[in-house]
Write a structure and sequence with these properties.
This protein is 28% helix and 18% strand.
């Protein structure tokens, strides 16, 4: 009988922005005097995008010390997205020739091949920005991480999707109806047409948006310069967590992002990744077959927004199928399992009807239902189909509501360590007893979590401290502790105490 021993080594503390990080250039605009204007470098802390595992953004600081150029791309098809020239407020922007010279170094440093930024479409932004609109909740944690949550003055979207406790406190209670001139449902506070509906807010400096906005300011709407979000373009977990570096550039908060990510989130991510590999190695050693993970949710409105899940003959609804090579694929492989996914790229996403979905995924040992609000309704309506699934019979179905119905979609990218640790705990079958899942809820045994409350506007990681786990393999029929001896005896005792000793 083979045996495997896991025991603890060094511990990495969870990150928090409550440490006294301050901007290296906290004054919005530089005074018009010789002493201030002659400061050699307004950005003494400079980021290297590679340190943030970035594949969708890069940055270069101009030699004159008051400007930085930021370039984004879609790494999936290697197409250039946006090109920004960020200049310290109150100083003179660089000339076209200075930008052109800097771009040569930017392209060389990026490591990206066969693409260059379009200088003619360069977008100028005065930094640090002091007022912001967001159109997606995924952007909110990054801005809160660098202690700029109060900078968010508008949200264009359904307020019920917001999980941030501090932002929810500022949402108005009443809502405004959809109109032809403004196709976004939400509140007046969250309406993208700021000039028309929220004159008290007035125009904002910048809007972090999806691809449905123009990249130029709209003077009639007052929504400022549109900056396309990049976190959804990062396919690695570290790259998604490292997106905080991109957002920090617009607030001159490089120092905060550097300390928070490189000195916190990344270090803990290294620990979590190491432990994920350790648990996967144990399963391999014990000849436990690689488990299949079904990742899907039922999308009622796959072709028509007017239908309901219980409508007879509903031809619109379908089960969403993930594309291989995305974040959930990498995470599943890292923890020693295999994701059921497709290489087929379908405009609008790939969906399956019940019978096809059952053939596709009913034998999977684990079912991640990728939504935090609809499992009960879907299970009631689809019980005849889902009741035959292996994952349902063994009660290994998890939705994303452990930290509230919507927080997975808001906070997961900024907390990649917590997400990966959730997946490790799920795939290891609960061996990782010291860890409490943050996002994934067992739909049979656990209640939906509650959303966070505002903690004075200070961001804190969802993670706890991470302790490195080492593996010692034994041979023969004896117990692991007896075979290891010495340190092994102490390690075995510690492992048993923490529920970390696994036998085949």
């Amino acid at each position: 009988m083979k045996s495997s021993l896991l025991f603890s080594l060094p511990t990495v503390a969870a990150a928090s922005s409550s440490l006294p990080y301050t901007s290296s250039s906290s004054t919005p605009c530089v005074p018009d005097n010789d002493e201030a204007q002659n400061i050699a470098d307004f950005f003494p802390v400079k980021l290297d995008a590679k340190d943030f595992s970035a594949d969708a953004w890069t940055v270069f600081y101009l030699a004159k010390g008051n400007s930085k150029i930021v370039w984004t791309r879609n790494p999936d098809d290697n197409t250039s997205k946006n090109f920004f020239v960020l200049t310290q407020c109150g100083t003179t922007p660089p000339t076209d020739s200075e930008v052109a010279t800097a771009v040569d170094e930017l392209v060389a440093n990026s490591g990206w091949v066969d693409i260059t930024p379009d200088l003619a479409s360069a977008i100028s932004v005065s930094v640090p920005v002091t007022s912001t609109m967001v159109t997606s909740t995924t952007t909110i944690p990054y801005i809160e991480m660098i202690n700029e949550g109060d900078n968010i003055l508008a949200y264009a979207g359904d307020p019920s999707y917001v999980s941030s406790g501090c932002l929810r406190e500022r949402l108005p209670a009443s809502s405004t109806p959809e109109s032809a001139s403004n196709p976004f449902v939400g509140t007046g506070w969250g309406d993208p047409n700021l000039s028309a509906t929220t004159p008290a807010v007035g125009p904002v400096d910048i809007s972090f948006t999806g691809d449905f906005y123009s990249s130029s300011p709209d003077p009639e709407w007052g929504n400022g310069v549109a900056v396309k979000t990049i976190e959804q373009l990062e396919n690695t977990l570290k790259g998604q967590g490292g997106a905080v570096g991109f957002y920090s550039l617009f607030y001159n908060k490089e120092f905060t992002a550097d300390k928070l990510f490189l000195g916190g989130v990344e270090l803990r991510m290294d620990c979590v990744e190491s432990n994920a590999v350790a648990f996967a190695a144990v399963n391999l050693r014990e000849e436990i077959s690689r488990q299949k993970v079904l990742w899907s949710n039922y999308y009622v409105w796959a072709c028509d927004w007017s239908v309901s899940i219980n409508e007879p003959g509903n031809e619109c609804g379908g089960w969403a199928i993930p594309v291989c090579g995305n974040y959930h694929d990498f995470a599943t492989i890292m923890v020693g399992a295999d994701l059921l996914c497709t290489d087929e790229i379908v405009a609008g996403g790939k969906y399956m009807k019940d019978a096809e979905f059952a053939t596709w995924g009913s034998a999977a040992e684990i079912f991640i239902y990728a939504d935090g609000t609809s499992w009960d309704a879907v299970f009631d309506a689809k019980n005849a189909t889902l009741g035959e699934f292996t994952s349902v019979k063994s009660k290994r179905v998890y939705d994303t509501s452990k930290n509230g119905g919507n927080d997975f979609f808001e906070s997961r990218m900024a907390n990649p360590d917590s997400f990966l640790e959730d997946m490790t705990e799920i795939v290891s079958g609960g061996v990782q007893h010291y860890y409490t899942r943050r996002f994934m809820r067992n739909v049979f045994d656990e209640e939906t979590g509650v959303e966070e409350v505002c903690a004075g506007g200070v961001w804190a990681s969802l993670a706890d401290d991470c302790t490195y786990i080492s593996i010692f393999f034994g041979t023969g029929d004896g117990g692991a502790a007896a075979r290891l001896g010495g340190l092994g005896m102490l390690a075995a005792a510690a492992a048993v105490g923490f529920g970390l000793l696994a036998f085949a």
